Amino acid sequence: MPTVWRAVIAAGIAALLTYAAFRFLLGPYVCQSGWASPSVGTQGACSHHGGIDRSPHYWSMLAGVVAAALSFKIVFWIYGPDE
Questions:
Q1: Which end of the chain is more exposed for a tag (fewer CB within 10 A), N or C?
Q2: Alpha helices, DSSP H, located in 1-83
């Protein structure tokens, strides 16, 4: 299997696993006021509390991108370029 495909597969798996782990560790969505509404995810659930705080989602995405980039570089470091 070419090194590029190994790197792409490793990056995809690393991104998905890291995103899932961060979402689990950071917990569910809450309102920006800190109120944990049981209705978060439905329209208007946090309308009186500043809207939904999406920062855990953004941190999870950032961690997934970093993990993908690192795993891509590591695979190239281990296997070297194709000849």
A1: C
A2: 3-26, 55-79
In angstroms, the CA 26 to CA 74 distance is 27
DSSP class of 40: B
Spatial distance between the Cα atoms of 67 and 77, rounded to a whole number of angstroms:
15
Alpha carbons 48 and 64: distance in angstroms, whole number = 32
- Amino acid symbol at 11: A
Q: Which stretches in the chain have pLDDT values below 70? A: 1, 40-41, 83
Domain of residue 13, residue span: 3-32+46-79
Residue 38 is assigned to a structural domain of this protein: no
Q: At 70, which amino acid appears? A: L
- Overall domain count for the chain: 1
pLDDT of residue 18: 94
Residue 41 within any structural domain of the chain: no
Give a yes or no: residue 39 inside a domain. Answer: no
